Each structure stands twice: as C-alpha cells, then as structure tokens.
Amino acid sequence: MQKHYLLGLISLLLLSCQPPQAPVNTLEALVADYWNKQLATRPDLSIKYEHPLEEIRPFSEETNRQDAAWAASFLERLQELDTTGMAHEDLLSYLLLEKKASHLLEASRFFHLQFPVTPYASPFRKLYQFFGLLPITTQEAATQYLKLGKDYVQLVRSIQNHLEWQMAQGIVLPEPEIQLVMPYLKSLIRSPENHPLMVSQERLGSLSAEAQTQFRDELTKLLSEELNPAFEQLLAFVSGDYLSKAGSTVGLYQYPDGEAYYRFLIRYHTSQELEPEDIHRIGLAEVDRINQEMAKIREEIGFSGDKAAFMEFLRTDKRFFPETPEAVGQLLMSHNDRILPLIDRYFNAMPKAPFGVKRLDPSLEASMTFGYYEVPTPQNDTGFYRFNGSGLDQRPLVNAAALTYHELIPGHHFQLNLQNENTALPLFRREDHFTAYSEGWGEYASGLADEIGLLEDPYDRYGRLLMDMFLSVRLVVDSGMNHLKWTREEAMEFMRQNIIESEVQLATETLRYSTDLPGQALAYKTGSLKLLQLREKARKALGDLFDIKRFHDALLQTGSMPLDIVEEHINWFIEQEKTQLLQ
User: Residue 351: phi, psi to the nearest 5?
Assistant: First the structure.
C-alpha cells in the first residue's frame, strides 16, 4: 500500500515538472478557443449566452498588445492545419477564423489612430445596454456588477489617457467632430437615480432587503463619486485643452500612417482588394448612372423643371413629411406589410423573430444622422429598426419604402436573424458580422424589392434611386476626404448636388465618413454590387437551372462572411448545383 502510494507521488511530481502541453491544434479546438475569446471580451455575447463577464477591459496599448499577441499565436496554430480534403463548411470556418485573426493583428498597427470617444465608435452606448440587461439574482452577481462598474470607470479614464497621448503626438479630432462629441459626453452624465446603470428594486427581488439597500447605496456612491466624475473630467479635457489643439481639416491622410490605415479600412470594410482611386471611380460612375435613371422618372412624372428644382420639391412638399414619430413608424411598417405575402416566391425560409420599428433614444439623435437595426435579445425577442424621430420637418421620407426593405424584410432583420437562428452553424459564425456582407445584403434586399415590383409608384422608385445615390455618393466623398485631400466643404457641396438630405444631415454624415467611421460607409454600395455580380455569375453559369430561392439560401444560410470568401462559396455552390441538378 505504502509502495503504491510512493510510486503515485513520484509520478505526480514527475508530471508537475513537465513543460505545459501545447494547445491542441484541431479545427474544433481552434473554433472553441476563438469563441471563448469572444465570450471573454464581448459584453453583448456574455449576456446572450449567460457567460459571466470577468472584466470590462481598458482601452490601452497594453490591451492592444495582448490582442495582437493572441492573434499572432492563433494564426500560427491555424496555419499548422492541413485544409486538404476539409468539408466545405469546415473550410469556411477555417477561412473565417483566419480572416478575423488577420484583421485583429493588422488593426493593432493602427491603434494610435483610433478615436473611441466619437458617437458611432465609442463603446459607451453598448455598455449602457449591457448593464441594463445584466441579471442580478445573487449576492455574487451584485458584487460582480459593482466590480464591472468600477471597470467601466477605468475604461473612461483609459480613453482620456489615450486621447491625451494622441494629442501629444499631434493626433487630434477635427474641431467640428469635437462639437458633436461634447454634447454626446454630456448626455452620459446623469444623476444616480436617473442613470442607466442604476438598478431597480425589481431586478434585485431575490436579494434580501438589507442586501438590496446596501447594493443600491454602493452603486449610488460609485455613480456619483466615480463614474460621473470620470465623464466630467473627460468632457472638461475634450472641451478644454483638446479642443484648443484641434483644427478644421478632416480625413485620415493628415495623420501619421493615415493613408496606410485608410487602405486597411477599405480592405476590412469592403473585403475586396480595392484602392482608394478605384472606390472613387466606381462612385462617380454610379452617380452618373443614377442621375440618368432619375431623369427618366422625372420625365415619366411630367415634372417640367430640372433636377435641382425637383430636389427642392422633394425637400418641401408636405406629402413626404410624416408629422410625428408615430406616423414615421406606421409608414415604415406599411411597406413591410406589402412584401410579406411575396416572400415565399424568393426565399425558402423566414426568421422566427418578429420585427418592428422604434424611435432612437432622443439623446442620440443629434449625433446620428439616421438609425440602426437592433437585433433581438434574450429579454426582447423582437428585432427593431430604430429610426431618428427628431427634426421631422427636415427629413423627407420619399425613400421610406427603400429604407424599410433595407432594414427589415428582406434586409437586416432577415439576414441577421436567419444567421442567428441557424443552429447548424458554429456559434462564432452565428454571431460574427462583416460590414460589406451585412450592409451589402441590406442594399441588395432593397433593390430586390424594386425588382419584385413593389416600387411601382414613381415616387417610391425615385426614393429608391435617392437611397442608391446616397450610398454611391459615399464612395466619392469618403475616398475624397480620407485619401484625395478633399475639404469637408467640398464633400458637402458634392452631396448637396446629388442628395436631398438637410444641412444638418450633411454635416453629421461628412464627419462620420472622415473622422468617426472612416471606410465603413464604403461597404454598403461595394457590398451590394458584389452580391449582384455573384448572382449574375451564378445565373449565367447555371442557365435554366438557376433558382433564386436556392441562391438566396446559399447566401444566407452560411452566415456573414467577407465577400472574398462569399465568392469562393458561390463558386462551390454553382458546382454543387450543376452536379445535383444534372444527375
């Protein structure tokens, strides 16, 4: 007995002296590792999958280095795999993991050019939503909530540190963007009782009365003595020393490595090998094409004036202006009611999640030109298009039909929820998103509604062209300001000549392209053009065998992917269709 015990002890000691085992390198293991990384760093996923979030990470160079090191190691492990003979879906997963890790590694080179304080790019809005959804059913959960609240304070302080470091290097946001940042930051400073992080007693129902009181007291102190002061200091810095160093020039080209960063953002957002000059040329060609289509509709309507006069008519005629946010919602939903009976002619599946429209939080409306699609959550199973309900007398909705089909059915609501509800996909593929695919699909869907015949009203068709023009103009002004050294006024003048948005909208949009989310707006038009190109490729290759519903299945059932991988997938789809249908 003693002998066996001693032998066992020796074995354990020998094992403890062995070097740590290298990570297992199988695709399944790498998928799991990537997913665990996502759960550990994305608050939205931690909520959805009930995975406790250990920390809210600071926005720091150290965090950036950690992510870069992780991505480099992950890529090395991926490259050790032999993809020969991999099943098609496994190969897609492999290619997606490779793309995500490569993006993360390359993006780390441009950490110094990121501005996490602007309305679109900052993490604050999403974190408020995260805290609002955190379940607090135990004392441990309450303690962790307070800990994450302190992490949030450190995040705010780390963002200020980052801006201060950038300022020392001469990297400062343009003054017009700072004028949007200041009210945005001010809106995040609220009294504890009205703060988004404050927790109602209903959410604490399972805790004792004493524990509830203690928690709310500690949270009140955290909000009033730590989080609000952190935002107040950030606001004071931005509106003081930082603002004094700001100029009026916009565009990434003005910063160190700015041109290289912009080229990376083009590849990242469009997932195509396009140069800034290519983007600009495509945009100008599309603007010219759409202008010709618009002229035909003005002639059809019998409008006697020129394009400028017709644009003024659209900007001022009361028929295009819903008077209340409720009327906006009713108008948007009426167009979805028209397409629903036709969906099964073009799609084999519909998402289970219901859909609707809601107004944006009014505190966001001044800094966000339009709205966004909000995916369902475990607490709310409905997907909403959140529209901007402010300044309705300045927002003609002649494009309401086109907008609705882009955002809801068969656009974002369709694509995002079919992806999320597809249990055959690995979890990371159900949750990852690529701009050109998602926004390209939204625009493709809007165009599909036109092909179906739902825009027979000439004003609806003109509204569709206005939306297409808007996305095409983005190619011109985004590349113009970030690469070709256009001034913001030059970009706004080009937009005035071609779209009907108000001066307020032109002001916020040009800042979005040049400072807030450079390159992101390129994805809409380039993505839709690529999807149309792939559909035409499949149609020509398959001839009479082409089935639009099966093509849509091929696009939607794999989840969001970079368009270069989508093209590989469609090539595979074409060969599969030939093989199966000719047997």
Answer: -65, 150
- DSSP 8-state assignment for residue 355: E
Structure tokens, 562: 């970079």
Bridge-based pairing state of the strands 355-359 and 372-374: unpaired
Distances in Å between the Cα of 281 and the Cα atoms of 80, 195, 262, 285, 292 are 40, 48, 17, 6, 17
pLDDT on residue 369: 66
Residue 569 forms part of a structural domain: no
Q: What is the DSSP string of 75-144?
A: HHHHHTS--TT--HHHHHHHHHHHHHHHHHHHHGGGGGG--TTSTTT-SHHHHHHHHHH----SHHHHHH
- Mean pLDDT within 573-583: 85
Report yes or no: 45 and 38 within 8 Å, Cβ to Cβ: yes
Strand partners, 356: 384
| Pairing label, strands 355-359, 383-387 | parallel
Instruction: Please report whether residue 34 resides in a domain.
Output: yes
CB atoms within 10 A of CB 20: 5
Same-domain status, 328 and 375: yes
Q: Is residue 111 part of a domain?
A: yes
pLDDT digits (tens, 9 = 90+) for 150-191: 999 999 999 999 999 999 999 999 999 999 999 999 999 999
Q: Give the bridge partners for 377, in sequence order.
A: 380
Whole domain around residue 114: which residue ranges?
Answer: 27-251
Instruction: Render pLDDT for 419-442 as a digit per residue (tens, 0 to 9).
Output: 999 999 999 999 999 999 999 999
Whether 8 is in a domain gets the answer no
Q: Cα 437 to chain center, whole Å?
A: 11
Q: Alpha-carbon torsion 181, 187, 188, 190, what sign?
A: positive
Q: What is the DSSP letter of 134?
A: -
pLDDT tens-digit profile of 555-575?
999 999 999 999 999 999 999
